[in-house]
Amino acid sequence: MITLYFFGSFLVDIVGDRAFFLVFLVGGIAGNLLYLAVGSSAPVIGASGAIFGIAGALLAGLKFGNLSVSAAERKAIVSSMIFFVMVNFALGSGVSI
Fold it and tell me: Is 34 helix (H, G, I), strand (E, B) or coil?
């Protein structure tokens, strides 16, 4: 939830409430559909797909958009994203942290 708070509040400041809600909603639906497409029949509970959607939107905005962020903010966002992905990959593969 802390990832949602930090990445989400940053994205809301950049794109606004409505666009953030759209990214959150589409990311959540897409994450769940991808989970089902992989072949798992277990029910899905949580917002991990939506949070990854927010992370993806931030990275896409940094890479391809005209986001006005300083070099220090850009570096902090990218390093936070790397940590976020590594922790989730480790948790998903069964490594205990």
Answer: helix
